[in-house]
Write a structure and sequence with these properties.
It contains ten helices and no strands. The radius of gyration is 19 Å and the shape is elongated. Helices cover 85% and strands 0% of the residues. Helix 3 runs antiparallel to helix 4. With 200 residues, it is mainly α.
């Protein structure tokens, strides 16, 4: 039903040469295809919208679509392309001073690095995400970033854990260090309990 509606909308926008409207609908079709796990189709729609956003000089939308293309590539296990797309997005966001958007992309770069077992790169990205999110008041995504760091610490080889703890202590925003460290401890405790339950 949703796809049918979007396709009808797209035809009308193409008829009237409403390029920004076309790009908006392509983005929606891309998200819909991604939700249906049709990643090839999702990539097609997002690439079409990307070209229009770039043509119109809309950097915010360009950055957002690059980020979405990174998510799609990551789902396809194309990690090199995912990293390139995330970095395209990050470059624009940092250039525009979009601290919140950059923090979300740093979080995705952390997930990507963790998937490839690049522990120290993942840690650096997660800490950048936490730093950015701590100043925006987005507690939901902040909690996710802290949880991801705890998971990284929990699954890292013992030889790397001390370095991860040191990085945490050195890079935490001072005004939130106590609160965030308590969140990290809770996340670690939950993972330990889950691991013990799985062994029983």
């Amino acid at each position: 039903m949703a796809e049918e509606y979007y396709m009808k909308s797209l035809k009308i926008k193409i008829k009237y040469k409403d390029e920004e409207g076309i790009a908006n609908t392509c983005d929606q079709l891309g998200i819909l295809a991604w939700e249906q796990q049709d990643f090839k189709l999702a990539k097609k729609w997002c690439e079409e919208s990307l070209e229009i956003w770039k043509k119109h000089g809309d950097k915010r939308r360009t950055a957002g679509t690059y980020h979405q293309l990174g998510v799609i590539a990551q789902e396809q296990q194309d990690f090199a392309s995912a990293e390139a797309r995330y970095k395209n997005s990050l470059e624009i966001k940092e250039e525009k001073g979009d601290e919140y958007g950059a923090a979300l992309t740093y979080g995705q770069l952390g997930v990507l690095a963790a998937k490839q077992r690049d522990v120290q790169s993942a840690a650096a990205h997660f800490l950048k995400a936490i730093e950015g999110l701590a100043s925006t008041g987005d507690e939901y995504h902040l909690a996710i970033a802290v949880h991801n760091y705890a998971r990284l610490l929990h699954t890292a080889p013992p030889s790397e854990r001390e370095a991860l703890r040191s990085r945490w202590e050195e890079q935490m925003p001072k005004e939130m260090a106590e609160y965030l460290t308590e969140c990290l401890k809770k996340a670690w405790k939950n993972m330990e309990e889950d691991a013990n339950d799985a062994q029983e």
